[in-house]
Amino acid sequence: MYSSLSFSGTTLYLLPEKAIWIESYSSLFIADLHFGKAAHFRKSGIPIPEPVHYNDLQVIKQLIERYSPTDLYVLGDLFHSDWNEQWELLNGFLAGFSKTKFHLVKGNHDVLSPFAYQQSLFQIHDAPVVLKNMFLTHEPAKKVPEGKLNLCGHIHPGVRLHGKGRQSLRISCFHLSETHLILPAFGHFTGLSLVKKGPNDHIYGISGEKVIKILYQE
Q: What does R_g of the chain's alpha carbons equal in angstroms?
């Protein structure tokens, strides 16, 4: 079950798949996929199984089939570090969705060669993208144009929920402030950075198949 919010007349749907759907734009937004990270670790001698990324691709497939987006924007850190064979696998997988245009707003981990990006399915954006009343970046922008909401990633936001006694649980979340909406890391093979709720902020935690507004946070 999603949560929704409105910004200047635009409705944004915060999805439990760690994505945002804006129906009026016919666009999906995700951040921090970090595809290829498992292969990068294996190259360093750490045996990480590849299905960790396969699951992420299946979620992308489900999202595209459900919403039929005209555009899908990755807000940085699409691919983790140097080239490996998973780059070809990713592009081959996305080639099956010919009705969707794929965009990459480059992040700090997007360091493949210009040739690799030129041969990909992605339209590459080296600078922030202004999309109607959204301002798309990887890292939270230090200065957001007036009247825009900065959709971004990079932080891998999470929140700790406390139960009875000493029970606690860390979950991914969307972090909304007056000018920024930070997306959770889409990739499963990523960590969490616990965020602090400012006085005018809103935290939307992802618990199973639900996105829930966190009303209290220690």
A: 17
Q: Under DSSP, is residue 83 helix (H, G, I), strand (E, B) or coil?
A: coil
Whose tokens are 């006085």? That residue is: 199
Rounded Cα–Cα distance for residues 92 and 114 (Å): 18
pTM of the model: 0.91
CA distance 134 to 132: 6
Domains of the chain: total: 1
Cα 217 from chain centre: 23
Q: Specify the pairing of strand 71-74 against strand 27-30.
A: parallel
Q: Residue 120 in contact with residue 107, Cβ under 8 Å?
A: no
Instruction: Tell me the C-alpha distance between 7 and 64, whole Å.
Output: 24
Helix (H, G, I), strand (E, B) or coil at 17: coil
Return the SS3 of 56: helix
DSSP state of 186: -
Segments forming the whole domain that contains residue 10: 3-214
pLDDT tens figures, 140-164: 999 999 999 999 999 999 998 876 6
pLDDT, one tens digit per residue, over 46-95 is 444 555 568 899 999 999 999 999 999 999 999 866 656 788 888 999 99
* CATH number, domain containing residue 194: 3.60.21
What is the distance between the terminal CA atoms of the chain, rounded to a whole angstrom? 25
Residues in the chain: 218
